[in-house]
Specification:
- This protein is α+β, with helices and mostly antiparallel strands and 883 residues long.
- It is built from 26 helices and 30 strands.
- An eight-stranded mixed sheet has the order 6-5-9-3-2-12-15-14, with no helix packed on it.
- The protein is globular, with a radius of gyration of 27 Å.
- Bound molecules: zinc ion (ZN).
Amino acid sequence: MYWKITAAAALALSINAPAWGQAAVAPAPAAPVPAGKLTGQVQPQAYRLDLTIDPNQERFSGKSEIDAVLKAASRTIDLHWRDLKLQTVEVIAGGQVLKPSWQQVDETGVGRLTFAEAVPAGPITLRFAYDGPFQSAPAGLFRVKVGDDWYAWTQLQSIDARGVFPSFDEPGFKTPFTVTLRTPPGQTAVSNGPQTGVSREGGLDVHTFAPTLPLPTYLVAAMVGPFAVVEGSVPPTPQRATPLPLRIISPKPNAGRLGFALEGSKEIVRLLESYFGDAFPYPKLDQITTPILPGAMENAGADLYNDSIIVMDEQATTGQKRTFGMVVAHELAHQWFGDLVTPAWWDDIWLNESFANWMGFRIGDEWRPALNIRAGAVEEGFSAMRTDALVAGRPIRQPIETNAQIDEAFDSITYGKGGHVVAMIAGYMGDDKFRDGVRRYMAVHRYGNATSTEFFKAMAEASGDPRIVPAMQSFTDQQGVPLLTFARSGKGWQVSQSRYARLGSTAPATRWGVPLCLRTTGAARQCQLLTEASMAVSYEGKGALVPNAGGTGYYRFELPAAEWDKLIAGADKLPGGEAQALADSLNASFQAGRASSAQLVAAAGKLALQRDSYASGAGISTLSSYSDAGFLDEAGKAGFQRLTNGIYGPRLKQLAFDPRAGAYAGHDPEETQARQQAVGALARKGGDPAVRAQLLAATRAFLGGDSRALDGAWYGAGLGAVVEEGGLAVAKDLVNRALTSTDPVFRPVALGVVGGSGQAVIGRWILEQLQDSRLRTSERQGLIRMVVSTGATRDLGWDWLKSNYEKLAGSGGGIFFASRLPEMLSGNCSAARADEIAALLRPKLQGKTGALGLERSIERVRSCGVLKDARGADLSAVLAQVK
Ligand SMILES: [Zn+2]
């Protein structure tokens, strides 16, 4: 799974529907209801699913059979279903057909069958006939109207298979699935296995599919609709003797923009097969798109993506192509990490996501090196550190005891931190040894399940260094960011480790095995394992000390003031990853009350000159976030404006600016990103009037019907400027245009711009317009999120949320919505607001999905207030002096 909350993708979030809860009529169950894992008394062996899916209807229906083994005689059988209306349930055991009573006994979808007499141990077959509702947001079987047609897709991770078919919905159970899909005539149906035939029965097309290789329930897929399809194949490779059938499948309006994905997917499959030394593990690959999934999902042989990730051509922006390379490589890496070898339980989900995250950036980078996709991994790692720096949190690997905890494991710690830690260990072990360990692990557990212990065993064998496993575990099993403090000691350094904490908070003492790689500017890196609380490191090098060589270490560093100044002075020339590490560690030092405001401002200026586009935005965006959080007085804000204009004005003169479509197609991607940062800053009010006027004119021409007047790269900045000038009337027009558009880029950007306008009158209007039936559930929720999280409408949004939280939380199913909901409040910045949030939401979220996200938000809000009081005035004073 890949998810990302960005201005555009944030528009696709939702929550599990609380439709369950009608009065139960059956007697209370005797045995306790399992809060997490089932008891294991039943082992499923094979599923036969026969689903009738007409996307034009509001409900679907199914007949399913599960072959299983009952380990001991029992009067009850627990399994999973959620909000399904079961019509008949039969269990065949010992040649008898048994008819149990049934009851859903838990809101997360635990169901219980109760029999008149004990079912004998041995092989059994469970048979169900049922129907259920399509969801409107991406969790379970959901449907969306695109243009004039309805389409349906499944999204079953983490525990939404139970909303589509009764099942033993746990990753540890891998079985073959034989799927039949009944659809309106002429529609395309896709599942995991290759299609074996289609016939007509009762006015419906009956699509049959070959039985799958062993899969867990969460990877099962069923997609139906009048899709556009392009077909091809991935040619044979040294690892695979026959061509791999490949299709790109997307709603009809996207036909004509699917060729890029077809070609890109071929190359990425080839690169992955080469890394794993192994053929693609399934007999075909379909890449399917939907407008509302906020990311992508690795269903075996039938991956699902948001339209915007896949639907594009060679003219697409650098940002879109980066996302394509990274996300497609991520999902296809999952065909091995996750699908071929599946975690035995959700506590090891890092074995899927940390590795897919690492592979996504790595293989994406190999696909098109000029896009600099690899630097995005470093950025994600440092972004995760900001979450991991909080006292509230979780380690990468953590026991999952209740169903409510499962979705919370899919957070930036598992993805960003996990990916960074994998990169650090791979870098320390050496790429070949690490790859050999991966191959060994895959070979032993093919088509089965595995745990972290088994992964560590394979790595220990491959590395030949027994210290590597405890070092790795010190990062996967412990929360927090190591802070390495450097002090001069003779000709070398004394390096001490502690757990990083922000000003005003204390973190428990923690010790790691840190693969420390350092160098000085102009010299090669030197690595060693830092296991003691404090260690002497001999290193003689001239030039500034670079304590995180390459930026691949998952740690922060602290330097004597003079060493910081030396490093900052050369920040523009550092390799991108090291510049990102500098930006992160310096800001962390500022947040801990150490680095000065002057150092922060000086670094922002130097970093902005970086050639690496990930590093060049890092310093200014830090200052921008403080400005947004209210740190700056009027003189400070004016100084910050002069600072950005002084940096980006000359930069854009050098780069030139032509807003027309395709003006920079084929240009260097880093240069296009630099231009985008410069225009983004200068086109704002208070920036460069000429740039703003040029962008406004192009955007107005575009909205007037000249589709070539504005490149997709400028939709955000251009539409933002137009709304800023035109206010509510323009915002209304833009929403109307968005809701009649099927363009996978324009529609979400236009809605995002209106939601994030920062104008109170627009914010209020949006909160009144939520009933517009053209808004998809996820878009409605995305608009609310934008109003609540954007600086200037934050208070207004908070007032709205106080009286509407319950309604929002219950507004219809969708992946990860509940666990992410409290995060929209994390931009607030005062102890008083932290108290208000805690008082309102703690009682509502106790023990539920989202409880951890809430604690993180409360801590961020409180900690931001502490920092603002301590350092806001000083930062303002320094910025006010900028000429
Ligand atoms: Zn993933």
